[in-house]
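Final report, Chapter 2: Outcomes

The project's central promise was a pipeline that accepts a single protein chain and returns its three-dimensional structure in a standardized token representation, suitable for archiving and comparison. That pipeline is now operational. To close this chapter, we reproduce one record exactly as it appears in the project archive, with the input sequence first and the structure output second.
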Amino acid sequence: MSLANHYLFEPVACTPAAGWEKGQIENQVGNIREWLFTPCAKFETLDDLNRWLKQRCHELSARQHPDFPSLTIAECYQQEQPLLRQITTPFAGYVEHLTKVSRTCLVRVDRNQYSTPAQWSGKVVSARYTRRLVWDQMKAAKFPIHRDLVKFDWNEASFSRQQVEQLSTAGFMDDAHNLILVGDTGTGKTHLATALGVAAIHHGKRIRFFNAVDLVNLLEQEKQMSKTGNLVRRLVQVDAIILDELGYLPFPETVYGI
């Protein structure tokens, strides 16, 4: 899903109990192997291999397209190319953060401390951690349901796709700017807010999702238990809080003093 969210395509899973679908994929892999690597070619350098692969791809693109017999594969690609979305940044299987090593040679990554070589003390280093931690952050965010930009209905939106894609980089969180989504019921505000939160997690941010009334009830419950401030101390450690249905339901009068 991380790869799909980055390149904005919709993955299609195999049908349960349909083993023949796996065989179709294996046949396609076998065809490519036969077309490109039979007989087995040998090359002195990777550059030689890449040049040969490029030449073979051009040769194979002159074949008839399986769905449009009147056109070659190359001709279909030329027609589709203007409609393809340009790739801006490559996908990485990790999240990267710049952080400073402490005087005791420790670096803090995702609320954990790790030791570093002594010569790195006081220096800014690049810390990378795997996508497994991203999944942990997804669970910690407590989204009511997973939403992403791939399945967002852009036809119903009153803003441009480019604006949302810019927001999905989570740069506005670095500048501590608020983002307010205003619209009628059913226009996709919750979907978009959740999708931006998911995208922010993929950029290394910590997100927490709340229904506004639920958050108020939690704060009221803390106040009644004389534990005011516990939730706030936890929330100051996240990069952004998503409040859903803000202003949609009235708050009890007792919460205005919290």
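Archive annotation: The mean pLDDT is 83.
This record, like all others produced under the grant, will remain available to the consortium after the project formally closes.
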